[in-house]
Amino acid sequence: MGELTDKIKGNVNEAVGKVKQQSDNPETREEGAAQEGKGKAQQFAGKVKGALGDDV
Predict the structure, then answer these.
(1) Given CA atoms 22, 28, 34, 38 in this order, what sign does their dihedral have?
(2) For labeling, which of 2, 8, 33, 47 is most exposed (least CB within 10 Å)?
(3) Alpha-carbon dihedral 39, 44, 47, 49, rounded to 10 degrees
């Protein structure tokens, strides 16, 4: 995956995770927190790939 793809997927996961955290269901809130974390990690991976030139 390229830099842009990672950043887009990261943004989507982070946004969906934030929405899930607004749920009344505790399991869904936990799932949302995990998904938001995954999104942040994907965005970070995209930034690293951008800095290293997509060779990672």
Answers:
(1) negative
(2) 2
(3) -100
> pLDDT digits over 3-47, tens only?
899 999 999 999 999 999 999 999 999 999 999 999 999 999 999
For residue 24, which phi and psi values (nearest 5 degrees)? -80, -20
Neighbours of 3 (CB within 10 A): 18
43 vs 1, 9, 27, 28, 29, CA distance in Å? 12, 8, 24, 22, 21
Whole-model pTM above 0.90? no
Question: Tokens 């290293």 — which residue?
Answer: 52
